[in-house]
Amino acid sequence: MMNTQTDMCVGARYDELTSLVASIAGRPTGEPAATSNANAFVLAEARLLDLGRYDDWLAGFTHDGVLWVPLTPTSHPGVDQALYLDDRRRLGERAAWRTDPSAWGQQPASVCVRTVGTVEAWTDGATTVVSSAIIIDEHRAGRSQHLAGHQIHELVDHASSCRTKILLFPALASGLRNPSFLL
Amino acid sequence: MTTTSDLSGLFGPDRVHRRLYTDPAIFDIEMTRVFAASWCFVAHESQVPEVGDYVTTEVGRRPVIVTRSTDGSVNALLNRCTHRGALLVHDGAGCAKRFSCPYHGWTFANDGRIVGLPFPADHPASAAGKRDHLDLGRLTTATYRGFVFGTLHPDPQPLAEWLGAASEWFDLLVDRHPGGELRLAPGVQAIEFAGNWKLSWDNAADGIHATFAHHSYNVLGRSNSTDTVLDRDAAVSPMLARALGNGHMVVDQRPGIPHGPWATMRPTPFSEQLTTAFLERGEAASDLDLATGSMVNLSLFPNLLFVGNQLLVVEPVAVDRTRLRLFLVTAPGAAPEIDQLRLRVDEDFVSFGTPDDLDMFERVQAGLSIPEMEWIDVSRGLLDGRDIADDDGVVTGPITSEAPQRGYLAKYASLLTTEVTTRVR
Fold first, then answer.
1. Which of A104, A175, A176 sits opposite B359 (nearest CB)?
2. Nearest CB to A4: which of B223, B268, B280?
3. B153 in any annotated domain
4. pLDDT-flagged residues of chain B (< 70)
5. Reported ipTM
6. Res A2: pLDDT
7. Among A93, A164, A174, A176, which would you mutate to test the B interface (most chain B Cβ atoms within 10 Å of its Cβ)?
8. b/e B349-378 (16+ beta carbons within 10 angstroms → b)
9. How far apart are CA B404 and CA B39, in angstroms?
10. What is the pLDDT of residue B37?
11. Contacting residues of B for A89, CB less than 8 Å apart
């Protein structure tokens, strides 16, 4: 229940996130030109993250950018716990934390290999909506985790900046070891 | 074979043996004597508000379905068909009048009674005219302030006795919610670590680790000019640690945070917008404390931890593997911004604090694999004269005291070394 204009802004942003997730299933085949542009973005993002170039990765987000990692595809960020829902400020904190030598949960740091595929994109007015599959293989401290899911991006500025990124991993509901590598 | 005498030798007044964390045979004993025969948290009533609602959980590795049956009562049923033993429902939650086994069609009402036996003429129970022995197994249950506990002990002590001195702290955590009403948000987060379940207990009332293990969390706080609750000098902090008896523990951080809980929180996503809306409507600034934890961390032995606004349910998986299930507690009677803030506050420690705890647990488990180094030290505060025991056996010490750990381990030792025959109702 939202009572004020300010609350409405937060609620509207949350509703955008759920609408974005819900919209993917009913979309037609991806648009070739949009898909080609978006493919370059999501592949480059995966490379930046694999290399730990977090500042460069952060630079790809708009000032109102959001990263949301819900526990289920039907979650609502104003009702349900998420693994995280970061605004631009907390994204910066997350990046800083990962490189803090006293952040023991990432010391040693996870070594990740991201594989992105099944990329489709659509132009929605001034934005580009991108759906892709993502596999993250994480290796840390002598053990590995393999995680498969989907990601959704809302890109702006001719698919050069990310306003919204959503990561959907079914394994989150059943138990993951130290998920702090997830980006 | 592990005998009671063997087990008794694993405990000392100031130390415990590594085998308690590494021996699969001891783990198997624990699952019955420490978990199944104790009062374990199985659900909060808000998780099953309507008739037919159910959630799944575990008690000592036993799959359990908690249901709201037609008469409104909450039941904890063993998730095992009484025919061949198949799970009736997979992990999760839902609403069902009946549970039908997908293997051979045996069907049970949501209070556990068998109501459908395909091809009944072929089953001796039909000939005998009596088939209640085919009902689902059930735990004995009792409820305190909406929290449902279950046990397979053949003659359990009353839940109120089991909670004992923990009750007043339990009440405090419930009563801070307007009208004493709280709910669990529907989603549950599961996190596993490669370590024994007791590592989470050792940690839950450990007042010193915050300075070291959570240094990075405190660094983030300082970057926003925020003194987190963990960023305090344990040597001089007036925070208190208590062993409450029956294995329950509490850490009371309130004396060490003079500006209240909300002052210990960094800004979280959208928190400025939400707090502005909250205050512009005339809500009291002090009520923002509800958006973060009470600063009282209560641990109810053996499987429920209150940390912040989260419930952590400890589910042992194997001697060296544990699952934590994290629930968010909401405050339906508070202004709507409170729960909106709680959602993002909840994620904050899970993001920047819990990973460090998980890493410590796994480091300890790995270190305990060294057989020549047998003992774990829990002596801090034992002889310095600052731990004070009252007439009820509650031991209160400074935040640096390991009195809570010694308290829970004493109860654990008592349970582990006492044979019990569990009973399914």
1. A104
2. B280
3. no
4. 1
5. 0.94
6. 40
7. A93
8. bbbbbbbbbbbbbbebbeebeeeeeeebeb
9. 19
10. 98
11. 267, 269
Structure tokens at B353: 């604090």
Domains in chain A: ranges and CATH: 5-181 (3.10.450.50)
Tokens 């025969």 sit on residue: B37
Encoded amino acid at B158, one letter: P
Same domain, B106 and B220: no
Task: Note whether B306 and B299 are within 8 A (CB).
Answer: yes
Residues spanned by the domain of B89: 40-143
- The mean of the pLDDT values for chain B is 94
- Domain-embedded: residue B362: yes
Amino acid of residue A166? I
What is the predicted pLDDT for the residue at A17? Answer: 98
Residues of A in contact with B191 (CB under 8 A): 175-179
pTM of the model: 0.95
What is chain B's length? 425
Per residue in A127-136, is it b (16+ CB within 10 Å) or e — as a string? Answer: bbbbbbebeb
We report the CATH number of the domain holding residue B369 as 3.90.380.10
Other Cβ atoms closer than 10 A to A109: 16
Q: How far apart are CA B56 and CA B126, in angstroms?
A: 31
Give residue-wise pLDDT tens across range B97-110. Answer: 999 999 999 999 99
Pick the residue of B343, B349, B360 with the most A CBs within 10 A to test the interface with A by mutation: B343
pLDDT, tens digit (0-9, with 9 covering 90-100), for B219-239: 888 888 877 777 777 777 888
